[in-house]
Amino acid sequence: MRSAKRLTVACLVSVALAASTLTAVAEDVPSPAPDAQASSSPGPSAELSAAPSESAAPPAPPSASASPSEAPEPVEPTQVPTAATPSEQASTPASSRVEGVAVEPTLTVKADTTKPVGTYGYASGTISPAAPADVVVQAYYSGAWRDVNSVTADTDGTFRLRLLYGLNTVGTQEFRVRATYDGFAMTSDVIVFTRTAKITVTSYAKTKVIHFASYVKGTIKGASSSTVKLQYNNGKKWVNVDSGKADSSGKFTIELYKKVTKGTHTYRLRIDSKLGWVYSDTFTQKRIAGWKSSITNTRASEVKYTYQTGCPVGTSQLSTISMTYWNYDGKIATGKLIVRRDVATKVRAAFKAAFFKGFNINRMSNPDVWKADDVTMMAANNTSAFNCRKVTGNPYRVSPHSYGRSVDVNTYENPYRVNGKWYPSSKYGTYRPKVQGLLHSNSTLVKELKQRGFDWYSGWDWQHFQG
C-alpha cells in the first residue's frame, strides 16, 4: 500500500513538471486575439493541463508521520495570465473597412423645384465615396416609377440629370433619383417639381421718342387665360396700364404706355394661370424728346446762292426753320427750311405733325449746298423751300419758290413733270406704291399742309406744295 502511494505521488509530480514545460513553450507562441480567447471556454481537460505559477513550489513528499491510511492531497497549480503585447491590447475599430470588402456608398441629391414650361429642370448630386455609378432619374406617372433619363457619374462621383418628363405641361410632377454601384442600390427622397406658365417678351423698341406709339410683342405658354396685362412701374408700385389678347398660337402685341416723360421706363407683363399669376422679366424703354425746332431770321450767308438781286422777297422777309425729322434710316436728323416769314409757323406745325406720325424725309438741306441748282438737288432727293430761280424746264417763268411760300418734299419719290419729262426720274411718275417718303392723299404731311392753306400739285408735280 505504501508503495502504491509513493507511485501516485511520483506520477503527480511528473504531470506537474510536464505541464510546466508546456507552459514555457506556450509563452513563445503568440496568443490568439482577445475576442478569440473570450469565445472559447476552457473544458475540464484544459483546466487539468493549465500551467502552474512559476513561483509555486513543487508538491512536498508525504510526511513520515502521516497516517498510513491517508494519502497526501495534490497541490492545485495556480494559473497566471500571460502579459499581452501593445498590439494585442488595442482593439480593432468597428468602422474600419475590412480588406477586400466594399463600403456601401451614399447618394446626395439637390434639384430644381420650379421652372416655366418648356424649360429644363435639373437634379445634380454626388456619390460618396466617389464612384462611376449608374444614375437614373425616375418620374412617377401611370401609377408607377418609370425611368426618364440616365447618366453615368463622373469619376469624382458627381452627376447632373435633366428632369424631362412633363416638359410642356403646367403642374406638379414627382421625381426621384436612383443609383447603383458594385451591387449597392441607393434612392433619393422624392423631388416635388412644379412647372409654371411662361410669358416671354420677343421684341420692343429700346428707344422711342415721347408721344410716339410703341409696341411690345411676346408669347405665352401654358396659361389658362389668353389675356396679357401690361404693367408699368411708376416708382412706387406696379400698375396695370393696358392689356391684350394672345392668339391661338400664344402670340400677342400690346401698345406700350404713352403717357410718359423723357427718361427710362420699366415694364413687365402678367398672365393668370392655374397656379397663380405669372410675370415676364422686366424690360425698360428709353423715351427721348425727339422733336426740336426753332425759327430764326434768315441771314444773308444762308442764301448766298438762292438769293439774287431783283428777287420778289428780300432776306429780311425770310425765316429759317431748324427742325428734326426721321430720315430713311429711321434715325432722327436735323434739317433746315427757309420760307417766307408769314408761313413759317404753319410749315413748322405741319412737319411736326408728320414727325410724330413717323413720316420719313430723305434729306433736308439748304439749297446752297448745290449752289441752287434745282435739277441736281432733285436728284439728291432733297426737301427744300426758298430758291429764287426760273422754273425748271421753262426759263421764261419765275419759279413760285422765289416767293418763299413753296415747299418740295422727297423729290425722287415725288417727281415733277414739265414738257413731257419727269424730273429727276420717271419711276414714280405714274406708279404710286406705298413706299417710304412717297406722298399720297392720306399722308399726314399732305393733310397737315392742306389744312393750313397749301395746295398740293398731285398728278404732275407730286413734290410741290404751294402756300
List the helices and strands and how they pair.
Blueprint (H helix, E strand, L loop, with lengths): L1 H26 L6 H6 L4 H5 L37 H4 L16 E6 L2 E3 L4 E8 L5 E8 L2 E9 L5 E6 L7 E11 L2 E4 L3 E6 L1 E7 L2 E3 L5 E7 L5 E7 L4 E8 L5 E5 L7 E11 L2 E4 L3 E6 L4 E5 L20 E9 L5 E9 L3 H13 L17 H6 L10 E2 L2 E5 L7 E3 L7 E3 L2 E3 L20 H8 L3 E2 L7 E3 L1
Parallel strand pairs: 2-9, 11-18
Antiparallel strand pairs: 1-3, 3-6, 4-5, 4-7, 7-8, 7-9, 10-12, 12-15, 13-14, 13-16, 16-17, 16-18, 19-20, 20-21, 22-23, 24-28, 25-26, 27-28
Helix pairs in contact: 5-7
**Biggest pleated sheet:** 6 strands, mixed
Number of helices in the DSSP assignment: 7
Globular, elongated, flat, extended or rod-shaped: what is the shape?
elongated
The figure for the number of domains is 4
Q: Which consecutive residue ranges, at least 5 long each, have pLDDT under 50? A: 1-98
User: How much is the radius of gyration in Å?
Assistant: 54 Å
Q: Please state the structural category.
A: alpha+beta
Overall pLDDT, averaged?
A: 83
Strand content: 25-35%
Number of strands: 28
Helix content: 10-25%
End-to-end span in angstroms? 170 Å
Keywords: Signal
Protein name: M15 family metallopeptidase
Domain Peptidase M15C: 395-466
InterPro entries: Peptidase_M15C (IPR039561), Zn_M74/Hedgehog-like (IPR009045)
